[in-house]
Specification:
With 341 residues, the chain is mainly alpha-helical. It has two domains: 157 residues, no CATH class; 94 residues, Tetratricopeptide repeat domain (Serine Threonine Protein Phosphatase 5, Tetratricopeptide repeat, Alpha Horseshoe), CATH 1.25.40. It has a two-stranded antiparallel ribbon with strand order 1-2. Helices cover 62% and strands 4% of the residues. Keywords: TPR repeat. InterPro entries: TPR-like_helical_dom_sf, TPR_rpt. This is Tetratricopeptide repeat protein.
Length: 341
Amino acid sequence: MHNIDGDMRSFVVLIFALSLWFCSSEPEKNPNRDPYSLETLLFLEEVLLDVWENPSAKEDAMSRLRYVCRTKDTDDGYLCYMWGLLEYQRGNYNESYAGFRKALEKNPNDTLYKNMLRLSAEKSGNLADLKAHSYDGEVLASLSELEKQCKEEKSPNISTFQFLIERGVFTKESLKRGSFSTCFQKLEPNEQISLQKQIRNPNVSYKERLYADQMKSDPFTKIWDTSSYHRGEWGKEMVGGTQGAVSATVSSNADGNPSLVTGSIRPSPMTEAWRKVKLTSLSGNEAQAKEAFKQFLTEVRVSKTKGKSEAMMATALERAAKLLLEQDPSYVKIRFLAKEL
């Protein structure tokens, strides 16, 4: 019996190989809203080369990057993040703080952006501004303040620990073995017991959260189920939604506290359609194969109408499907479908 997951793995490899063929014409070096577009990547490459290799053009390059951050950054705030990162490396911490703040406005749940905002706030003396900026900013600033107290071997402030526990930052395990554990042990025993009683350990799988973050950063997730690819699984979940995956979103409960939202991820219609095509390749049922392939092509056309990046990725999937149908032995029974592409 043919192995569906092995063939799907070949399909994924073809997808990423064909993604290099997206554009046949030379793009202008101007960014657009898609962080993975060739235009955006070429713009960023030009800026980085000027910053690192052309001293006379460095300031002009930083000015261009600062301008696009403030006027036409990508949907995920990546160019603002790059501006903040370059300024941080140059020691311009006030500028880097501004860049990371702009990046978080576009992508408020990105943990990397949050951490760099916190570090730049420390370096630039903007912790008070960060604390007043937002709900997350208050948490980040409090973490920095507590970290400073611990490094200076000062007696930690129990109210800071209590605030961070209420916001769900600390778990019993992190206070026992984490980076703040030594500092926590400096509190009075009765204070430690009181704080530990307030901890509500969330039912969160950080492994699942990692998978969710990887899927979120994968551009193909927009139109194709990439969950099993990132999990390293090649079973039936490869072509359908993976149960129990953690969505990379934050919701608010009645108290205004953020909480992770868990649940199953809806299977991609295009992935499900191709799964049916693959199943018909095993049976050789011509009528079912035509119907399943028709559904796949419909989903490809729908994806092409959603935006430029979706259209390019759908084209890559279409080309991958054609190559599989023409050349993969697993599809020999339905090879006639290649004529439809």
